[in-house]
């Protein structure tokens, strides 16, 4: 990817954006995107700190961080229950919750944390989800999750749905398995990267006040993107474990 470079008079560093240049860490023959690991560890650290603070002194009547964490847990549980179904959703709440919370906090970190003030020898820091490697990794994990869910519940009978209702559906069902992770990863990556670029360009053209409404809108769309990703992941798992032809077991509507 060609480098895009925006710099407001070479002095207002928050307006500087570089896309396509990375800080590489070398591990044998592997080249790792160092800036993605740095920001991902930051997000993971925040989640761990919030969890420890919320559960340090658990009260029967929650308040403060405990109340916030319990509300988040209930919200995630509702997503999983609606998409996966009453019978199977509980075991998937940690997976869906991890996806939602990490993506949500990653997206917001790109809008709220002044990453551009931290200088790197190459590349720059930004939201982990603004890197295609992060979103592809989450999409592939989602694919593995719904394959595991279907096979663990139905055995090899899971693959029977590839030829239902007629065998001619086989190539289309296989194609669907390839397009799902592509759709998940590029939707999230494209929206978060576009938001960072738009804010960067506006800061370059009209510094300080005008970009603020766009940043607020970016926070809203970032939260929506986390919700969409987690909901679709739960919906795919729900499809994999759904019972067909038994006349009564259904899971909730899909996104």
Please, could you describe this protein's structure?
The protein contains six helices and four strands, in the order ββββαααααα. With 255 residues, the protein is mostly helical. It has one domain. The strands form two sheets. A two-stranded antiparallel ribbon has the order 1-2. 28% of the residues are buried. The model is unreliable at 1-17 and 246-255 (pLDDT under 50). Its main location: membrane. This is ATP synthase subunit a.
The largest β sheet comes out as:
2 strands, antiparallel
Q: Which parts are unreliable, with pLDDT below 50 for 5 consecutive residues or more? A: 1-17, 246-255
Sheet-strand content, in percent, reads: 5-15%
- Overall shape: it is globular
Q: Over all CA atoms, what is the radius of gyration? A: 21 Å
User: Numbering strands along the chain, what is their spatial order in the largest sheet?
Assistant: 1-2
Q: What pattern of helices and strands is seen along the backbone?
A: EEEEHHHHHH
Q: Estimate the helix proportion, in percent.
A: 55-70%
Family: Belongs to the ATPase A chain family.
Transmembrane segments: 32-54, 92-112, 132-151, 188-210, 216-237
Main location: membrane
Function: Key component of the proton channel; it plays a direct role in the translocation of protons across the membrane.
Briefly, what is this?
By secondary structure, this protein is mainly α. It has helices at residues 34-55, 64-84, 93-112, 132-154, 170-205, 211-241; strands at 4-8, 12-19, 24-27, 30-33.
